[in-house]
Amino acid sequence: MSDPVLILDDISHSYHRGLPTQVDVLRGASLEMGPGELIALVAPSGAGKSTLLHVAGLLDRQDSGSVSIKGQDTWNLSDDKRTGIRRDTVGFVYQFHHLLPEFSAVENVVLPQLANAVPERDAIDYARQLLDTVGLGHRYDHRPAELSGGEQQRVAFCRALANRPAILLADEPTGNLDPTTSDQVFDALLTLVRETGLSALIATHNAELAARMDRTVKLEEGVLVSV
């Protein structure tokens, strides 16, 4: 069996909303994700899905427990090293696309590659390849305002995969779309995930979408349980 690409081991995380009140969001959450695995993360709003994804993607530091990415424990790493792992290994997709409005679809996918020192010609070629995969080959030069909501989100998926991450973390990526568009966008996401071979942890309220993934985990009272 292949080694996990992501291990969350006994993760706890709390917020302080004015002393002495403390809100315990994660209370010993654990998860292992294998290469190429697609996992649905389900929980009610406010249960801590976003917090879990931020900890897994090294955007937040947990209070206790460990996050290991591709075999490396990140607990004692400096902020610079954590940033490097996040940049090179993890892609993020959110409910809102957050595309740069002044740039075209292809430019939005090229920019992260240029920031990672990819030659411009190679960056453009790969951006077009990703956009072709999600059916946007005819939209290379369109800016976000000229795209539909579903098209904007598909561009956001491509941008998240621009630097060839090993892990994709998605927080309600279809939550802002109507059901028909949601299905189309999720189909595009599945195609990208399967064709690139990356692992994905996707938070969703949509039971039908969750059922199409390899397995589902639920966040209950700060702990992850299999569904």
Automatic annotation (TrEMBL):
Residue ranges occupied by any ABC transporter domain in the UniProt entry: 6-227
Family assignment from sequence similarity: Belongs to the ABC transporter superfamily.
GO CC annotation: plasma membrane
Gene3D superfamilies in alphabetical order: P-loop containing nucleotide triphosphate hydrolases
Source species, domain of life: Bacteria
InterPro entries xrefs: AAA+_ATPase, ABC_transporter-like_ATP-bd, ABC_transporter-like_CS, ABC_transpr_LolD-like, MacB-like_ATP-bd, P-loop_NTPase
Keyword match Cytoplasm: no
Protein name as catalogued: ABC transporter ATP-binding protein
Taxonomic source organism: Qingshengfaniella alkalisoli
GO molecular function: ATP binding; ATP hydrolysis activity; transmembrane transporter activity
Biological process annotations from GO: lipoprotein localization to outer membrane; protein localization to outer membrane
Taxonomic classification: Bacteria, Pseudomonadati, Pseudomonadota, Alphaproteobacteria, Rhodobacterales
Annotated keywords: ATP-binding, Nucleotide-binding, Transport
